[in-house]
Amino acid sequence: MTGTFGRYGGQYVPEALMPALTELKGAYEQYVLENADGFMDEFHERMRSFGGRPTPLQRADALSDRYDTDVYLKREDLVHGGAHKLTNALGQVLLAKYMGKERIIAETGAGQHGTATAMAAAHLDMPCEIYMGRTDTNRQRPNVFRMRLNDATVTPVDVGRGTLKEAISEAMRDWAQSVETTHYVIGSVVGPHPFPKLVREFQSVISEESRRQIRDRTGSLPTSVVACAGGGSNAMGSFTTFLNDDVALHAVEAGGESLTVDADAGVAPNSATLQTGSEGVLHGARTRVLQDEHGQIMASHSVSAGLDYAGVGPELAHLVDAGRVSAHTVDDETALAGVHRLSQTEGIIPALETAHAVGWLEEATESQLGEQIVLTVSGRGDKDLETVLEESTRRNIPETPDMDVFDPPANGGTDA
Amino acid sequence: MTGTFGRYGGQYVPEALMPALTELKGAYEQYVLENADGFMDEFHERMRSFGGRPTPLQRADALSDRYDTDVYLKREDLVHGGAHKLTNALGQVLLAKYMGKERIIAETGAGQHGTATAMAAAHLDMPCEIYMGRTDTNRQRPNVFRMRLNDATVTPVDVGRGTLKEAISEAMRDWAQSVETTHYVIGSVVGPHPFPKLVREFQSVISEESRRQIRDRTGSLPTSVVACAGGGSNAMGSFTTFLNDDVALHAVEAGGESLTVDADAGVAPNSATLQTGSEGVLHGARTRVLQDEHGQIMASHSVSAGLDYAGVGPELAHLVDAGRVSAHTVDDETALAGVHRLSQTEGIIPALETAHAVGWLEEATESQLGEQIVLTVSGRGDKDLETVLEESTRRNIPETPDMDVFDPPANGGTDA
Amino acid sequence: MEEPMHNSAITAAFDTGPAFVPYLTAGDPTFEASLEYVQALERGGASVIELGLPFSEPIAEGKTIQNAISRSLEGGMTPVRFFKFLEQLDVTVPLVCMTYYNLIYQYGTHDGPRPFVERAATAGLDGIIVPDLPAEEAGPLHSACQSHGLDLITIVAPTTTTDRLERLVSLCSGYLYVQARLGVTGARSDVSEQTAASLDRLTDIELPVAVGFGISSGEHARTVIESGADGVIVGSALVEIIGEGHRAGDSPDMVAQRLEAKSREITTAITKLQQQP
Amino acid sequence: MEEPMHNSAITAAFDTGPAFVPYLTAGDPTFEASLEYVQALERGGASVIELGLPFSEPIAEGKTIQNAISRSLEGGMTPVRFFKFLEQLDVTVPLVCMTYYNLIYQYGTHDGPRPFVERAATAGLDGIIVPDLPAEEAGPLHSACQSHGLDLITIVAPTTTTDRLERLVSLCSGYLYVQARLGVTGARSDVSEQTAASLDRLTDIELPVAVGFGISSGEHARTVIESGADGVIVGSALVEIIGEGHRAGDSPDMVAQRLEAKSREITTAITKLQQQP
Ligand SMILES: Cc1ncc(COP(=O)(O)O)c(C=O)c1O
Ligand SMILES: Cc1ncc(COP(=O)(O)O)c(C=O)c1O
User: Fold this and answer.
1) Strand order across the B325-331 sheet
2) Is the CB of B351 under 6 A from ligand 2?
3) What is the pLDDT of residues B153-174, one digit of tens each?
4) Which ligand ends up closest to the CA of A302?
5) pLDDT of A50 over the 70 cut
6) For residues A257, A261, A264 and A267, what is the CA-based torsion angle, rounded to 10 degrees?
7) What is the DSSP code (8-state) at residue B204?
8) Among A9, B238, D145, D239, who pairs with B376 as Cys (CB 3.0-4.6 Å)?
9) What mean pLDDT comes out for the span D256-270?
């Protein structure tokens, strides 16, 4: 059957959307797979000149010393907008243009996919509307500003907890109505077929680059590749080109506060979908999801908004089931310490999402680390500054810098 | 005489600092000019893998249409940290390391140079202290967070208005005391010889790249190059490689609120040093400065903190006097509109500094624009979001997006 | 076209003239009130009743039904209780469950739709509608329904192409659910032009055709029947009555009376009509 | 080594034994009070007085003198008024102006240091110290000073190398200002070890040598003279008295008395001493 990955995948959407998915599948095959009208050439050229690709692969000297191995960082934080997300957003907006669509919609949680889509839409002159949970609009003000500056409409979603899950549902509702003129730019390797393949295809440029870069630099392939996984686009992008190589692939999920769930409250205090989720149908695909015994989707949690999602891409779920990818969890505290470690020792402030992959290095065994690691820095941490400081202080993370600098000025001035 | 550019330049510093400047001059000649110990190779390699160089040169389609010419953007906003500033900071911190220094100090205004220096210092494992005016620490909180995350000490300066001018003075005082072990990483092509040359040398990689890129792409050199100028490192970096070409060079300063000064209050409501300043001595160099009739330095103003400085690099001042570079001013309102224009039509939210160059395109004559323009996007605007929205709203800039999205949720929900 | 494998009580309900098919979310706002409301619908003249089993991610619903779903979930509705609800209902008209696939898939101790369908059959359910299950994914549920004598009711959208239409019809029994307009559920004040167009291409379908999405008054309902439908599905307009009553703190009896009155408005408007040939 | 071109009153002031060279910012906190304070210094035994002409960017000063400069600027001090200040002063000891180069450079209707020096000479000034003017840039000011019979006093730092030292000495007249420690001005509670080291290499200099930066008490002053200096420069310790008085709202007379007392403490401590050979 098409559109599935082992047990996962499929197209669990209202009938009204099926023709659009069929059309999208056709466009995917024609433009993306077969480069019709030079689509992929234009995509790569725009990602180069507008998006800043290729991103560098950098040796992390301090981490390499710390773990007594060679750690290389794939610097997706240097992509325009500050995360790997633009690669997918630009690919899809461009595809929508080739398909003759007139309008773009997208959902966003932390705001990274929303800002990426808004940028891509402004760049390609497409009207754009972003759905964002009310809770998220309030806690991610700077990203709302950025989307509005890029002239995107931002529509807060007042349903439920007002976070990513609700925003996706709302975007799907818009699409059910506007499907004839509108393309829905989904933000990760999730959703109904062909989205998981389409997004993975765009994002696999990450591992195309890093595989070439590490060989050019060291003459060999890495022992392992490490990437954080929310929906899984960063992980799939970082892994895809290595799938047929003898390279260990590690996906790091958000362990949140704890791996135990409160089923009565419908809350999982983590986003460890791959580790603790079970098979279910969410947002158009069969995959691993966080759900209660009845099949109701649970509210997930992570200190990192971009990993805070109850589902995961079906292909990644399948690769984990098949044993090709190892899934790990890193909890909030270890991730926060990871932000500080990378900031202090390498001069790179990573996104909280990325910090889960960084944190995992602390917990990995020597053989998991191996001789050479490529870790994808999926985004920069500018969006997370306030959260990192608040949460690190609250939890007494020892690496947390003090912020005494904000104290009021000492009165008068003497020579001390 | 060495260290001068026409009437400008020199070394107006306390005797205690002279040996350090002599030492620095030696290091500059040895490591930077002669690539001793492969210094420049290491610099370029680190700027590549850590800093994200080369930055792309992107055709700006919407601006090209608008001005009926070819506008290319040199994307310094994609450098690690979000501005061209890292190139200088990394160069100097690396040089300090080669010189055997044990500690780094720097001043910062908006925080861009401070964050760049903190990143570079963390990357190269050097203790680092950043002086920042008290006013600036309070209005640039996110940048203070970033510096602290990178483990830099941030020392607020309570003197005077508590802005950049005072921070530089304070950094010089620290240096006067610590000069034997400490390198002072000055943030622009200002200060005593050899700083203006040293910083220009590092930053000229901008025009080395853009000159090559535009020729590769179009087969010709641009008609003109446009760059905003505060201290002038972005402008000098963008111009240097074109100096001997038949290419017009335009430096755009902050016109602020008005070009007339209030000498009694000691305030110039602008930072138009090249246009309205007069010859004077400030922070170690003879150059153009904003001063009253007695020679007291005036408080400058610009909506853009990074241009808000009463001095300018001596070499740039000289090139303007010599007619090789044309100086222009763009006021706060035109710059704000420039932020919105680039954000909305190109999907790039520029720094307020950069927005002055963008705004100038509106005011330039057809012949100034010419057939092909390279405009340096010196930095990204993430640091300026709140300012841009507040100031745009206050001044009724027509392009300003509304922020109704933050209104409280409508009560209940109906199908509308 | 494949014939339904059983004698459908649902299809039979369309025999006596234009059918009124109301929708409620079961358990909205409480288990008991909701039981009363369903019975009110029957008194108001319902031919078939659709009962929503609430799912946490109702991607096909507008605000009105989303709110109903929230109320029902907060009231403790689960699939297990839903079946108890069915068993406690004292109505004679055929009942259809409308829910999302994950709840069906998760029910019982092993994966797949069979346990749910089995239990549904014993609880007296006649049919199932799953808005997020297109023909492509409907195979397992379809065969489970056939084994247990339940109708799987499929939805035809304005965007459905001719080849898809055939496939949907071939899977369908009970009635064909025709979505009147693009978008999500929700009461509207006009009848979509898409409705007439949709019905035009369904003239040679043997199954009864019921139109839903946006029908909110007797007048609308009449127009739809005049355009050739065999029945009208009314959801949000009824659910909104429950929502309003809930917000106003009205007694379940009062709300039940309003539901009955609204139902009668629609029944009255359509029973006089003969459906178009 | 070049001989000074004139008979320096400043140099002469060192002839009668160890010199006490106090510093104040002129106009701190007001023009009038400041006149009184300078006279108090003379009463306290000053041999030469350094008067700060305040500049907005005093990069060589610590917090104490920065604050004095702010007070003076807020009080309206300008180079023009500074010369009036000098003219109104009723003191007989030689006066030295300490200021930054930009004020000197901007003074008058044409660029360069000459107009300033000319006016300074008529106002009765004897010498000039410019902390941000190293030997490399001192040429124009040096020749202007020579033309008008003023001493240009240069500063020797702990970091000054031997070749630089020669150049600084060759430009200097009046006295050589020896910076006791690295850093900026400011009172300290100890005497730097750098001081002794600095003085050691100046034993064969013909000019008097005065040590400044951080001297705050008679005891410090004595140690410095014992280490071989010809005079001590005391700034922040005196300026702080003015600052404290200002903050406490004390009368200028009270402050003047304290300044005189502090001066006498230092003068007393050093006049008993014979400088080392
Ligand atoms: C920086 C960053 N990394 C990772 C993620 C997780 O998404 P995905 O797993 O699809 O890469 C996000 C999502 O917003 C993100 O912003
Ligand atoms: C983005 C950006 N552009 C320009 C400037 C102005 O400095 P300069 O003229 O030295 O390039 C700054 C200073 O902070 C800056 O941050």
Assistant:
1) B57-59, B70-75, B372-377, B224-228, B248-256, B325-331
2) yes
3) 999 998 878 888 889 999 999 9
4) 1
5) yes
6) 50
7) T
8) B238
9) 97
- Minimum distance, in Å, between the CA of residue D64 and any CA atom of chain A: 6
B34-89 confidence digits (pLDDT tens):
999 999 999 999 999 999 999 999 999 999 999 999 999 999 999 999 999 999 99
Chain C residue nearest residue A177, CA to CA: C183
- What residues contact B290, with CB distance under 8 A and at least 6 apart? B261, B268, B271, B272, B273, B276, B277, B297, B298, B300, B310, B311
10 Å Cβ neighbour count for D119?
18
Q: How far lies A160's CA from each of A230, B202, B238, C185, in Å?
A: 20, 53, 51, 18
Mean pLDDT of B174-190: 95
- C42 a catalytic residue: no
CB D195 within 8 A of CB D166: no
How close is the Cα of A379 to the center of ligand 1, in Å? Answer: 8
Active site residue B378: yes
**Residue with the two structure tokens 């990644």:** A316
**Nearest ligand to the C-alpha atom of residue B89:** 2
Positions of E strands within B319-394: 325-331, 372-377
**Mutation choice for ligand 1 from A78, A79, A85, CB with most ligand atoms inside 8 A:** A85
Cβ neighbours for D45, distance < 8 A, ≥ 6 positions apart? D20, D263, D264, D266, D267, D268, D271
Beta bridge partners of B107: B131
Any idea what DSSP says for residue A291? B
Amino acid at A85: K
- Cβ neighbour number for residue A68 with a 10 Å cutoff: 9
- Interhelix angle C236-248/C63-74, nearest 10 degrees: 50
Residue B118 CA, chain-centre distance (Å), reads 16
Radius of gyration of chain A (CA): 21
Structure tokens at B402: 């509304």
B23 is known as an active-site residue? no
pLDDT at A411: 43
Size of interface B-D (CB pairs under 8 A): 120
From D66, D103, D132, residue closest to B13, measured CB to CB: D132
CA C8/CA B87 separation, integer angstroms: 76
Cα separation values, D181 from B178, B238, D155, Å: 11, 41, 12
Contacting B with CB below 8 Å, chain D residues are 55-63, 66, 70, 73, 78-80, 100-103, 105-107, 111, 131-137, 154-161, 164, 168, 179, 182-184
Binding-site residues on chain A for chain D (CB distance < 8 A)? 412-415
Determine whether the shortest distance from the Cβ of A315 to ligand 1 is under 6 A.
Answer: no
Residue B409: its pLDDT value, please? 47
In this complex, does chain B touch chain D, defined as having at least 3 beta-carbon pairs under 8 Å apart? yes
CA–CA dist B269, B288 (Å, integer) = 16
Within 10 Å of residue C200's Cβ, how many Cβ atoms?
A: 10
Residue B331 token pair: 């006021």
* Interface contact flag, D131 B14, Cβ < 8 Å: yes
Instruction: Write out the H or E segment, with its range, that includes residue C85.
Output: helix C79-88
A230 lines ligand 1 (CB under 6 A): yes
User: How does DSSP classify residue B414?
Assistant: -
- Are B151 and A343 a contacting pair at CB < 8 A? yes
**C107 burial level (CB within 10 Å; 0-12, 13-18, 19+):** buried
Contacts A125 to B, Cβ<8 Å: 62, 345
Q: Which two tokens stand for residue D157?
A: 């730092």
- Of the residues B107, B166, B315, B353, which is catalytic? B107
Query: Burial of B246 by CB count in 10 Å (0-12 exposed, 13-18 middle, 19+ buried)?
Result: exposed
Interval between CA B145 and ligand 1 midpoint (Å): 22
Subunit partners of chain C (3 or more CB pairs within 8 A): A, B
